[in-house]
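Suppose you are handed only these lines of text.
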Amino acid sequence: MKLTCTCNHPIIDNTDGLSHKGYVISDAHWNNFWDAIDKAIEESGPSPEDKERACMSVRQTRPFRSIWECTHCGRLWMDNPAGKLVAYVPGNGTYNRVLGNK
Ligand SMILES: [Zn+2]
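From them, the structure of the protein bound to zinc ion can be written out as follows.
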C-alpha cells in the first residue's frame, strides 16, 4: 500500500516492521481479544492441527485497525469503520514518532 499524505509526503507500507505503522484496538475489543487468546491457549487440543485451528481463531477476530504516521508532518492516518482513511493532525504539527521507538 502506498498513501500520499495531505502534505504530499509518501507513506510507504511495503514490508513488515515499519516504525511509522502500527495497530489500534478499541477498549470495547480489548477484553474480547485477550479472552480469545486465553481460550486458544486453554482449550486447544493436543495435536498441531488443534493448535493451528486455535491460533487461526484468534487471528480471525481482527480487532485491530492499521494506523500510519506521516514521517514529515506527523498526521495519523487510519481506517474508519467503513474502511475510509481519516487523518488526525497533531497539535504540534510535527512527526512525533508515536508508533516507533525512541
Ligand atoms: Zn504528512
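What can we learn from it? Residues 1-26+63-102 form one domain. The CA atoms of residues 76 and 88 lie 5 Å apart.
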